[in-house]
Fold this sequence. Notes:
This protein is mainly β and 203 residues long.
Amino acid sequence: xxxxxxxxxxxxxxxxxxxxxxxxxxxxxxxxxxxxxxxxxxxxxxxxxxxxxxxxxxxxxxxxxxxxxxxxxxxxxxxxxxxxxxxxxxxxxxxxxxxxxxxxxxxxxxxxxxxxxxxxxxxxxxxxxxxxxxxxxxxxxxxxxxxxxxxxxxxxxxxxxxxxxxxxxxxxxxxxxxxxxxxxxxxxxxxxxxxxxxxxxxx
Length: 203
């Protein structure tokens, strides 16, 4: 294994990092390919057998586990977690050799995508939302909301530290000290007070 002598990120000798926009401290592991034109922030981990297409945008401190493809039009915010073999798309009606405009997908800061989950294009995953393993997500997910199933449906709420929340009368408090209120418009949560523990967990 070796690091580039000119760049401040690490690329395994069996990885391929063609992009000139990869941040300091990022690690690209064996058989992963980051195309020219992709943007990757600092402190990221791109696991084995991953593919990052030109036009994809990845924030800072993002963890992408093995076997994930990040296509053009997919944007991952800071501190997003993507589990192994999760699937993104960027075309709502794919056909061989038929080229359409890219349909964008955004995953907001701190959100987690479970292993083998599938996200259809054109949706937004809210900040610190949690997509369960194997879920098929066909519509946008509000902030701090847990979704699961096929098609994915809301199944509760989660704190930014990752613990499950159980709102009572429109309010929720995690054992880490973080407090929330339900957002009646989106069905998600909004932060009332950020605890030190939650801030540390979410950095």
